[in-house]
Amino acid sequence: MKIALNDLNELVSKALKKYGYSDEEAQVLREVLMYAQMRGNNQGIVKLIGKGIPRNTEGKPFEVVKDTPVSALVNGNFTHAMVVMNAIADIAIEKAKTSGIAIVGNYNTAESTGAIGYYAGKIAKAGYIGLAFSASPFKTTAPFGSNEAMFCTNPLAYGIPSQDGEIVFDMTTSAVAYYGLIEAKTAGRQLPETFGYDSEGTETTDPASIMGGAIKTMAGHKGSGLALLVQVLAGALVSAESFNSDSDNAGNFVIAIDPNLLREKDDFKKEVSNIVARIKESRKTPGTSEIMIPGERGDRMTKQVIESGEIDVEDNLLNELRKVVED
To answer: What is the pTM of this model?
Structure first.
């Protein structure tokens, strides 16, 4: 169903206000959610339906609890993860301006960070290489060789500046994002592959059954290895009790690197653009019309949405969002 972009923005803002967020918090959440929605990413407005993301009534303003010229650790105090992760990206950018590199993490956030490519891309827009990781105690994903949920979806992202804009890659280490399951369930669709297991450990394409069982890791043992890396960086390193735990202590971790530490930034950005050009000019496989780089499809979708002023949203999803606002 087509809806005017302004109208969808208004619906999202109303839903966030209904969930109890301040104007400042709602602005950040709306930007992150709409970033995903306009890119065709399943970390968008689907987060607002069903139980949604009501503001944690016990949440308090986040605070920096450990600080050095190149690092910071933040206690999220159960403020929404999108608000906190946006803040730690900003802290990393500011520290990188003077130190050339920054590592910033947080623990104790509430809810989902959304599409973490947003934060890696924000760092890249500021001229730095950005890396982002997120871990949560919400167990959804089985390690390779197991059918028991132990990890969360443990996403990671990078953002790289170039002469032609930012290259942003964003992925879950699970075979499908949890909100991808919710989207499929809402639309009444089966998954295209057996991306997970039901509660008995049997492989299935039914999203509802996987929600009650476990998602597989992407690319088998490789995805499982990456999930472990994310768990260490965004969990153990930042004091988040986010593995095999019943706590709500989720963590996030970002790195900002100034290319000037190793070479002139302009030369670096030029070389990145040259790499991209060579990749796109490489020999294509049969049936391939264009070789895409990370984030390119989403960038084009976003541009098209902005230029047309309209966005296509799955009917059931849009109707459920309207119910949230109207109820």
So the answer is: 0.95
Residue 242's pLDDT is what?
A: 65
Instruction: Look up the CATH number of domain 58-174+217-281.
Output: 3.30.1370.60
For the chain, domain boundaries:
1-55+296-327, 58-174+217-281
Q: Can you give the pLDDT at residue 246?
A: 77
Q: Is 1-55+296-327 CATH 1.10.1530.10?
A: yes
Distance CA 273, CA 203 (A): 42
Residue 64: phi and psi, rounded to 5, are: -80, 125
User: Tokens in use for 196?
Assistant: 């997970």
* Burial class for 244, CB neighbours closer than 10 Å (0-12, 13-18, 19+): exposed
Measure the CA–CA gap between 121 and 162, rounded to whole angstroms.
12
Q: What is d(CA 213, CA 229) in angstroms, rounded to the nearest whole number?
A: 23
Tokens representing 300 are 């084009």
Within 8 A by CB and 6+ apart from 46, the residues are 179, 182, 183, 186, 317
The C-alpha angle 291, 292, 298, rounded to 5 degrees, equals 155
What are the pLDDT digits (tens) for 12-41? Answer: 999 999 999 999 999 999 999 999 999 999
What is residue 244's predicted lDDT score, i.e. its pLDDT?
A: 64
Place of tokens 């296509």: 312
**Low pLDDT (below 70) residues in the chain:** 242, 244
Q: Which residues, in sequence order, are CB contacts of 276 under 8 Å at separation 6+?
A: 162, 164, 167, 293
